Amino acid sequence: MSVQESAPTADDPVAKEQDRRERDARRFERDSGRLEPEQRYRALLAILKMETDFLDLADKKARFALVIVGVLNAVAVVFVVRGGVDILPTAGAWALVIRTELAAYAVATVYYIWQAIESLRPRGSLGRPVSALPMAIVPGESMRVVFHADIAQRDRLAFRGLWDQLRMDNLNTELADQLYMVSRINVAKYDALARLYRGVGAMTILLSVLVITVGAYQLVR
Fold first, then answer.
1. Any domain includes 140
2. In a domain, 174, yes or no
3. Is there a domain that residue 71 lies in?
4. Is residue 128 a contact partner of residue 120, using CB atoms and an 8 Å limit?
């Protein structure tokens, strides 16, 4: 009598282990290989959105710093205008010291307001290509059909025609260029923002020193 070998069943532990290894191998190949064009497109969009959020955050921080500067300046103006000769000396060494401190505060205010302007000003062309706009589809190249400054320079029908023929690699290349541009803008904005917040600290110290000086003058007069 012959003995028939039974086929592996779904509950066979050997078959389960083999299936698991095959799934792991496919997953490893997928994770360690190059991104597909659609995956690159989604990744670029996600990173570009993150960098754009950083742009908005930098602008909010710059506006908040300007609010603090405005409060400090309001205190300084009230201190000088309302104080008058009863608080501020008009002659002698004390007057010279206080005027020097006021001048330093005024210079710091102007300089750091300029840093706020540097942080907030538009930088739409930073890192943009300076070559002429491409008029025919070239595989793998940026066709410059996404950025508003490039779109506005094109004829409407020619612009539509480029989009009719656009390839995924064209779009991914342009998104990579956009990401590069926004990243450079972020670096410039956050450098100016760091200087601005250092200035807010410096202005606070200068105003505090001025108040202490005037207080010392009132004690010894």
1. no
2. no
3. yes
4. no
Distance from the Cα of residue 65 to its chain's centroid: 16
Host domain of residue 93: 36-132+187-220
> φ, ψ for residue 137 (rounded to 5)?
-65, 130
- pLDDT one-digit tens code per residue, 92-124: 788 888 888 888 988 998 988 888 888 888 877
For residue 31 the two structure tokens come to 């994770």
Q: How many domains does the chain have?
A: 1
11-25 pLDDT per residue, tens: 677 666 676 666 665
Distance CA 5, CA 142 (A): 62
Q: Is 3 a domain residue?
A: no
Using CA atoms, how far residue 103 sits from 116, 210, 218, in Å, is: 20, 11, 20
CA distance 205 to 41: 49
Distance separating alpha carbons of residues 203 and 108, to the nearest angstrom? 7
| Residue 61 to residues 30, 66, 117, 190, 194, Cα–Cα distance (Å) | 41, 9, 12, 10, 10
Q: What is the pTM of this model?
A: 0.72
What b/e readout covers 169-184, taking b as 16+ CB neighbours within 10 angstroms? Answer: bbbbbbbebbbebbee
In angstroms, the CA 188 to CA 54 distance is 12
Q: Are 118 and 194 in contact (CB under 8 A)?
A: no
CA distance 42 to 48: 10
Nearest to 176, CA basis, from 139, 132, 142: 142
Alpha-carbon gap, residue 135 to 131, rounded angstroms:
12
